[in-house]
Amino acid sequence: MTFQTLRDIMVDFQLVPRGLHDKRVLDAMKKIPRQLFVDESLWDRAYDDMALPVGEGQTISQPYMVAVMTELLALSGNEKVLEIGTGSGYQAAVLAELSREVYSIERIGALSEKAGETLRNLGYINIHLRVGDGTLGWPEAAPFDRILITAGAPDMPEPLIGQLSDGGIIIAPVGDRFSQQLIRITKEEGHLKSEYHTPCMFVPLIGEYGWKEE
Ligand code: SAM
Description:
Layout: H1 3-15, H2 23-31, E1 52-55, E2 58-60, H3 63-73, E3 80-84, H4 90-98, E4 101-106, H5 109-121, E5 127-131, E6 144-149, H6 158-162, E7 164-175, E8 180-188, E9 191-200
Parallel strand pairs: 3-4, 3-6, 4-5, 6-7
Antiparallel strand pairs: 1-2, 7-8, 8-9
Bound molecules: S-adenosylmethionine.
The site of S-adenosylmethionine (SAM) has 26 residues, from strand 2, helix 4 and strand 4.
């Protein structure tokens, strides 16, 4: 089976039957070669319905979670997006297909470096990477139309709310260290509106406005 067939099966059997319907998101996930974001020894599992290890104790998220979070961001193509937790770079690639510019922060240098290499090889020129504590955001590039946190947070980090533009959306898995719920906050004329979505399980967001390192 080709990787294209595996991608089509992933979308048609893991995403569509669970209610995902944004054609732009589904098309992006049919296009991006997810196997290139994991070690070659895992290529035969790259399209499985699960998160996979990417080294340094971190993971590339389950395709379903990537699709849910991306669909909730409601991207039309012209947004400036901030992602916290670059990891493998796969989610950044999905965002880059669907928005104008992506800024992505990763706290582990080796992961950011590897992700940068993969994304460059695939020809993405609208993704900016930085190593650091993403809970502090990227003040020089703010405000952002969308912010996506791809690690489990104890609370929505305050600095990120401050860097969200009016009309913007921020999404994060919020809860305890081992289980969270996806929360979507929309900023409208300075007011915040929260909605609660899918239960989930992410590796911890570690930083000044996240969990403390153990
Ligand atoms: N989005 C990634 C992908 O597509 O592969 C998956 C992200 S993985 C579930 C969570 C990532 O968040 C890890 O790589 C972890 O090192 C990173 N992380 C945790 N705390 C962070 C912080 N404060 N700032 C930036 N990255 C952080």
